[in-house]
Specification:
This protein has a domain of 224 residues: Up-down Bundle (Growth Hormone, Chain: A). The protein has 26 helices and 2 strands. A two-stranded parallel sheet has the order 1-2. The longest helix has 42 residues. The protein is elongated, with a radius of gyration of 29 Å. About 1% of the residues have low confidence. It comes from Kutzneria kofuensis. It is found in: Cell membrane.
């Protein structure tokens, strides 16, 4: 049992072992976000199942993000308690909730409460996993490592889109998506339970620029007062560099979180794509984003700079978001037009995000490397709070979604099924229809209706009689549903594209706010200056190692 709780490493691991721990963290993050995002793949089905309004569904996400914000603050205690147990056992909780809880929720309130519990655990792991990545990755490889970590939410979304787009037609019950996801989550929980470890506080509380610092880090470890290093943690993190940077990325990612929660709704209601097609568009977005995160991380580490990437990525994201929103009022936009637009958008978002994650942890380290989890907790709280507030505002900007989501699919299906009959009824005087509704055998009303059909549709009497009989055979429930909801669905369909366009402009505003806040973060703009800093650091390390070697008779950790 102690092996399942005591996970600390007293020596910095060799490369192979270190990569194993990093791989577990990345896979754990992927699975966690797969679990968190799975409702988005079948959102329309969930709304129909529980008879939710669109705002109610949105506010489930709002509450989840709010709960996740405060659990992120709680995860700041990882600097005292460690990180690995939070990740491992958190995966067990979310796996059980996804497999057994959410798909069996008896009503919409219970569904919302269970989703909030998943979000609570997600908020904790959101902080603990990048803290582990930072611990096992020196600064020279930080952007690459964070590029892999940021695969978590992106590949989680990609896995969700890929699985759902290939299984929804075979397993049409929306609950099957939760069952598949929950099984995967519990498998990864077992791997993390037995395989994940973390550095002891004496090792992780130091700044490590390159693997050449390993001997010095281990030599210093015995002399570190861990409790003193983490005194007054929140006060140390309350700086413009930390808060401003966290707010910058939070508003930059408003479009990302909108895509996660509402892309399927957006593409199915505005453009008429099927759920499989909408998730297929998501496949391109998340896939391109995932590949770009890795490539950009490697290039950023090679050049030793972060800020130029953030600047280029933000500018490119602004341009592509504007291109994307320009299609909101063009409902005939094709599938592959969206594919290339969002693929280019994904590239620019990755160009900004992977270097930002590296730069943020380096900014926190500049203040106090012993408080990495605390700094990440501040980031986690801010990003979840901003997402909660932005999603809360969404229904006030896109006010017409409820009729489309709740009734649009059925109205479209019935309108297509009874198209000819509806056209026939449309040319008959309403008073005449009312009379026939009360007494289908009324000869005067029947004769008048036939005459109106003959005149309006230019057909003979026999054809008109046949069409009237076909219209009379439409089930009353279907006709009543169309009479009750068709008009509001048509009005919503006309208003919604423009309202969504307004929301995408809000996303552009968030991306623009990101730009000036790049300058509060640490790091160089020019690779030559970054190389000079590295050479200076290495000279200090060599000098300190030489001094330690002399004072200890030449005995240092290998």
């Amino acid at each position: 049992m102690s092996v399942l709780w005591q996970r600390r490493l007293d020596h910095y691991p060799e490369t192979r072992q270190r990569l194993w721990y990093l791989a577990i963290v990345v896979v754990a993050t992927v699975v966690l976000y797969y679990e968190l995002y799975v409702p988005g793949a079948v959102a329309t089905e969930i709304i129909a199942q529980y008879h939710m309004t669109f705002p109610y569904y949105v506010y489930i996400s709002v509450v989840g993000n709010a709960v996740g914000a405060f659990s992120s603050l709680l995860a700041g205690l990882a600097d005292r308690w460690g990180r690995a147990n939070l990740v491992a056992y958190g995966l067990g909780v979310t796996g059980l909730l996804t497999l057994f809880g959410l798909p069996n929720a008896p009503d919409q309130f219970t569904f919302g409460v269970l989703f909030a519990l998943v979000s609570f655990v997600e908020g904790i792991i959101l902080v603990a996993t990048p803290a582990l990545v930072r611990d096992f990755s020196p600064q020279l490889g930080r952007a690459s490592a964070m590029g892999f970590w940021t695969l978590g939410p992106v590949v989680g979304s990609l896995v969700l889109s890929e699985v759902s787009s290939n299984t929804i037609s075979v397993l049409p019950d929306w609950r099957s998506q939760f069952v598949i996801c929950g099984i995967v989550g519990l498998v990864v929980f077992v791997i993390a339970l037995f395989g994940l470890r973390e550095l002891s506080p004496n090792l992780r509380d130091q700044l490590m620029v390159s693997l050449r610092d390993r001997a010095l880090v281990e030599a210093r470890a015995a002399g570190i007062d861990v409790n003193k290093a983490i005194e007054r943690p929140w006060r140390q993190m309350m700086t413009v560099r930390v808060i401003g940077s966290a707010f910058a990325i939070a508003v930059f990612l408003i479009i990302y979180y909108t895509a996660v929660g509402f892309f399927t709704i957006y593409f199915t209601t505005i453009y008429g794509f099927s759920l499989a097609q909408a998730n297929g568009i998501g496949n391109w977005f998340w896939g391109i984003d995932a590949l770009s995160l890795i490539v950009v991380g490697v290039i950023s580490d090679r050049l030793g700079v972060r800020k130029p990437f953030m600047l280029v990525g933000a500018l490119g994201a602004i341009v592509m978001t504007i291109v994307f929103l320009s299609r909101a009022t063009a409902p005939d936009t094709g599938y592959y037009t969206f594919v290339w637009i969002i693929s280019v958008l994904a590239v620019f978002m990755a160009v900004a995000y992977a270097p930002w994650m590296a730069s943020f942890t380096e900014t926190v380290e500049r203040i106090n490397p012993a408080l990495t989890a605390t700094g990440l907790a501040v980031w986690g709280w801010i990003i979840r709070a901003v997402v909660a507030l932005s999603i809360f505002a969404l229904p006030f900007v896109v006010t017409s979604m409820t009729p489309l989501v709740q009734y649009g699919t059925e109205v479209s299906a019935l309108a297509a099924k009874y198209d000819a009959e509806i056209k026939t009824l449309g040319v008959v005087d309403p008073a005449t229809l009312g009379t026939l509704g009360r007494n289908p055998a009324d000869p005067e009303a029947g004769t008048k209706a036939v005459a109106e059909i003959m005149q309006a549709q230019n057909v003979d009497q026999a054809t008109a009689v046949q069409r009237l009989k076909a219209a009379a055979a439409v089930p009353k429930d279907d006709l009543a549903f169309l009479q009750e909801h068709a008009a509001e669905v048509q009005a919503a369909a006309a208003a919604t594209p423009g309202q969504w366009q307004n929301w995408w402009w809000v996303c552009v505003g968030g991306e623009a706010v990101f730009l000036p806040l790049i300058f509060v973060m640490v790091g160089r703009w020019r690779p030559s200056r970054a190389r000079a800093d590295l050479a200076e650091h290495q000279a200090r390390v060599d000098q300190e190692l030489e001094q330690l070697s002399s004072s200890t008779g030449g005995t240092l950790p290998s």
